[in-house]
Amino acid sequence: MNTQLLRELCQLHGPSGEEGAVKQYILDYVQKHASDWKSEVKVVMGEDLQDCIMLVFGKPRTAVFAHMDTVGFTVRYQDQLVAIGGPEAETGFRLCGQDALGEISCKMRVGDDGHVFYDFPRAIETGTSLVFEQDWRETSDYVQSCYMDNRLGIYAALQLAESLEDGIIAFSCWEEVGGGSVPYLARKIYEEYGVRQALISDITWATEGVEHGKGVAISLRDRSLPRKAFVDKVVQLAIKSGIDWQKEVEASGGSDGRELQESPYPFDWVFIGAAESNVHSPNELVYKKDIQDMIALYRYLMVHL
Question: What is the pTM of this model?
Fold first, then answer.
């Protein structure tokens, strides 16, 4: 498994609301590699999509959603930090970013009252975003880094693009803070292409029921409840595929699927992603074989759905 692309994605600065650098990386990647893909791709972007991108192939029946943003922190006043999304906070975690005075690499400090601060020789400009500093670790079985969530979802989508003949890949924004971009993506996908079913390429949790090495997880539900008829269809196809997968059932958590379900468009959707440990921390851990199963299942489903 070649992890260079995933490693590069994981080190991009792109907390919610600042997805521009990730967008540009994806556009550069498409420009460089699209000529080697099986089918011609149409890149859809513009002011009406803000920082989102859509890759359209052939006559699409299904859309794949992958969010580009990460959790992080915003500098408040003095040395205070405000969370972006739900990042883990622990004294000693390393953060990085940039303000008008230059590059920043600093440590996090968590007070007795739970408030979060930075330790840096100078004041950092108010409003600056800081993200976890990448510490890439890799063995024969695992990859570990900050921001597998959801750079791994993007990685899987770009691997899918190599062989995709009919479908849409939508790269969305703001997922970690509750969303906001999926409704206008859904409108465009439904009204212009007639597509009404979606797969959510995102990362889930390793739990007592979802284990490393047991295959990609198909989520039957989280905080939201996708339509069972569609979930059952996906599950039956997964069984036929012969690819390793496992069922997930959770009472909490969410994804771009929640926004699809709440949109005014009749989308069916299901979340499919590899499981990770140490969620929303600098130490997110994923089993390599689960990543390979994730990519393989997406390729199979996009042909058969």
Answer: 0.97
Q: Which domains does the chain have, with CATH numbers?
A: 4-70+137-304 (3.40.630.10), 73-132 (2.40.30.40)
Q: Give tens-digit pLDDT for 159-197.
A: 999 999 999 999 999 999 999 999 999 999 999 999 999
Q: For the chain, how many residues are written?
A: 305
Question: Each residue of 36-95: pLDDT tens digit?
Answer: 999 999 999 999 999 999 999 999 999 999 999 999 999 999 999 999 999 999 999 999
Mapping DSSP onto H, E and C, the string for 202-247 reads CCEECCCCCCCCCCEEEEEECCCCCCHHHHHHHHHHHHHHCCCEEE
Kindly tell me the sign of the dihedral angle through the C-alpha atoms of 201, 203, 206, 209: negative
Q: Are strands 94-99 and 102-110 parallel, antiparallel or unpaired?
A: antiparallel
Q: Which of 39, 12, 60 is nearest to 199 (CA)?
A: 60
HSE-CB at 94 with a 13 A cutoff on CA atoms is 9
d(CA 216, CA 222): 16
Are residues 13 and 97 in contact, defined by beta-carbon separation less than 8 angstroms? yes
